[in-house]
Backbone:
């Protein structure tokens, strides 16, 4: 990243920092991930302002770091709440990224013991995904699948069932009942019920 130098446009540097931070998270290198994602967030704030998608996405990345790598869900909670609010103000509720952030918010709420609020965020994410365009629903499919895997890794079978029901419904709408992706999700749902 240092080869980008100060001459690199801020947006390119911000994207590079975010990508590098995600790479460090994938490698479970929490100190480097934190430092890099904080730099990306500071750059997004300085160049785009506090009411920008860049800043919201950088806060979302920091929240994911605190939740999944640093095991600090209380630090993640205000970050994801702010990111979700900014994104909703700029794009409205009918956006695939809002669905992903609602699912992130649900994970954070579960981690801090707010299970009723977590269920409400998952319900809203599933309801939002159902009313989006087919192209947007396909983007939501990935979010639902990822968060279902997170819940399965935590051993949270109730959440797995809840998310699988949303995924089956979404795949029925986008692919049809005869499609392989629908059959896979429906098969998993049957195993967990």
Residues:
């Amino acid at each position: 990243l240092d080869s980008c130098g100060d001459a690199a446009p801020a947006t390119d540097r911000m994207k590079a920092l975010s990508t590098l931070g995600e790479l460090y998270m994938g490698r479970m290198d929490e100190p480097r991930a934190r430092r890099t994602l904080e730099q990306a967030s500071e750059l997004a704030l300085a160049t785009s302002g506090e009411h920008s998608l860049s800043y919201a996405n950088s806060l979302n990345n920091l929240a994911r770091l605190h939740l999944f790598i640093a095991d600090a869900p209380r630090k993640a909670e205000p970050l994801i709440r702010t990111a979700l609010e900014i994104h909703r103000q700029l794009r409205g509720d009918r956006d695939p990224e809002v669905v992903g952030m609602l699912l992130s918010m649900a994970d954070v709420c579960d981690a801090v013991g707010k299970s009723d609020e977590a269920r409400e965020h998952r319900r809203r994410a599933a309801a939002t995904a159902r009313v989006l365009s087919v192209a947007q629903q396909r983007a939501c499919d990935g979010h639902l699948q990822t968060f279902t895997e997170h819940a399965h890794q935590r051993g949270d079978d109730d959440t797995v069932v809840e998310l699988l029901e949303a995924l089956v419904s979404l795949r029925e709408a986008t692919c049809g009942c005869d499609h392989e992706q629908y059959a896979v999700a429906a098969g998993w749902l049957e195993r967990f019920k």
User: Anything to note?
Assistant: The first helix runs from residue 10 to 26.
